[in-house]
Amino acid sequence: MDALSSQALVAGYRCAIVAAQRLRRFFPLNMTAAGTVPPAEVVVLGAGVAGLQAIATAKRLGAVVRAYDVRAAAAEEIRSMGAVAIELDLDTLEGTGGYAREMTEDRAERQRELLAPYIAAADALITTAAVPGRAAAPRLVTADMVEAMKPGSVVIDLAAESGGNVEGSVAGSVVQVGGAQIWGASNVPSQMPGPASKLYAQNLVNIVTLMTGEDGFAPDFDDEIVAGTCVTHAGEVTHQPTAEALEARA
């Protein structure tokens, strides 16, 4: 029933494919009589559904993948995808429901400093980080960090529409920063309409089925999912937006 997760799956896959398409070198290791071509180095920031799918896809294409997430549980998930978990000397940030929570600016600055050498060494950087309830994406990468990347490097910012994980990214555009190009994501699931539509349709089927009984449409408001998604019922407002949501909307 989780449409956010189903569409993030599509977006994460698409991000890795775009990175491979825009990078002017092989992803996999190639050994030939003319010499050896080393594999591409890919760094993924954010290991939610989209990030893990980007990791898995980049690994299938033969890249060496390193990834980082502020949540402690994410390191195990990163390794399960065959990638190397980047471990920084920082406290983890676990939020409700297994999501990340917002960090202070001091911690964000220290995190950027520690991530800088990993990003500088990468051929492709994919960022997928978001904080639930916040309209603006966390700023993970500065323009100076992008400029330190190798000429021809590619940056894929999945969060470009919500302000960007990467400074300078523009949704729906490719921006050149130093020798690297930043691809700003815009409505990425729509770029793969077949699987995106199929998965979203199944989300809708599942939630309608949950609210349907033998006698027809009969939502059970004691069910956590039904109660959490219902906005109005029988002429009454049942779900008021939080102060954070109203602030984000403003």
Summarize this structure briefly.
With 250 residues, the protein is of the alpha/beta class. The chain has eight helices and 13 strands.
Layout of strands and helices, then pairs:
Elements: H1 3-22, E1 30-32, E2 35-37, E3 41-45, H2 49-60, E4 64-68, H3 74-80, E5 84-85, H4 105-120, E6 124-127, H5 143-147, E7 154-157, E8 174-177, E9 180-184, H6 193-210, E10 212-213, E11 216-217, H7 224-229, E12 232-233, E13 236-237, H8 243-249
What does this structure look like?
There is one protein chain. With 250 residues, this protein is of the alpha/beta class. The model has no long low-confidence stretch (mean pLDDT 91). The strands form four sheets. It has a seven-stranded mixed β-sheet with strand order 5-4-3-6-7-9-8. A two-stranded antiparallel sheet has the order 1-2. A two-stranded antiparallel ribbon has the order 10-11. It folds into two domains: 3-191, Rossmann fold (3-Layer(aba) Sandwich), CATH 3.40.50.720; 212-250, no CATH class. It has helices spanning 3-22, 49-60, 74-80, 105-120, 143-147, 193-210, 224-229, 243-249; strands at 30-32, 35-37, 41-45, 64-68, 84-85, 124-127, 154-157, 174-177, 180-184, 212-213, 216-217, 232-233, 236-237.
What distance lies between the first and last C-alpha atoms, to the nearest angstrom? 28 Å
* Low-pLDDT regions: none
Helix content: 25-40%
Strand segment count: 13
Q: Look at the structure and name the CATH superfamily of the largest domain.
A: NAD(P)-binding Rossmann-like Domain
